[in-house]
Amino acid sequence: MNLSSILSFTKAWVKESLFEGAVAVDATVGNGNDTLFLAKAVGAKGRVFGFDIQAQALNQTRSLLIEAGVESRVSLFQRGHHRLAETLAETNVPSVQAVMFNLGYLPQGDPSITTLPETTLTAVDQSLNLIATGGTLTLVLYTGHPGGEEEASAVLERLTTLDPRFFDSAHYRLLNRNRAPSLVIVRKKK
């Protein structure tokens, strides 16, 4: 595996928690690449719930899913990720096997529309409550935009305090690349 490919590294971790019929969340749909990955990984009997506040992101993702023939497995919501627990409760989903976040802004979108520490921390807390035993939460932290450093620091501070009896958490980053994205992985213990 290419060490500098943080996104492929992320998917490798998430895939360990997924199986045919699993339920997963893409908390920040963006261009839809993680949504598509999750839709393929959960199989025809699985479900994926995707969240983004921008219609542009959802439309682009919908097209990607249709092209791949997996759109029936995915429900997209034009809502902030801080509403994921509420949305899953509305759809009678009690737990999920994986939640993925790519924080920051929509690539090729408006860079002034970014994820925010307050809503991200709410979504992280909700995700920790929703993840089933053996499930995985990943957050790719981008720090090269205004507010990115603050959001990353807030996430790391929160996840450092997780009870080790129930969660393992790790922070992966490239040491020789300034402002390269880093990855936080949380696994709920069995």
Automatic annotation (TrEMBL):
<dbReference type="InterPro" id="IPR029063">
    <property type="entry name" value="SAM-dependent_MTases_sf"/>
</dbReference>
<keyword id="KW-0808">Transferase</keyword>
<protein>
    <submittedName>
        <fullName>Class I SAM-dependent methyltransferase</fullName>
    </submittedName>
</protein>
<dbReference type="GO" id="GO:0032259">
    <property type="term" value="P:methylation"/>
</dbReference>
<dbReference type="Pfam" id="PF06962">
    <property type="entry name" value="rRNA_methylase"/>
</dbReference>
<dbReference type="InterPro" id="IPR010719">
    <property type="entry name" value="MnmM_MeTrfase"/>
</dbReference>
<dbReference type="GO" id="GO:0008168">
    <property type="term" value="F:methyltransferase activity"/>
</dbReference>
<keyword id="KW-0489">Methyltransferase</keyword>
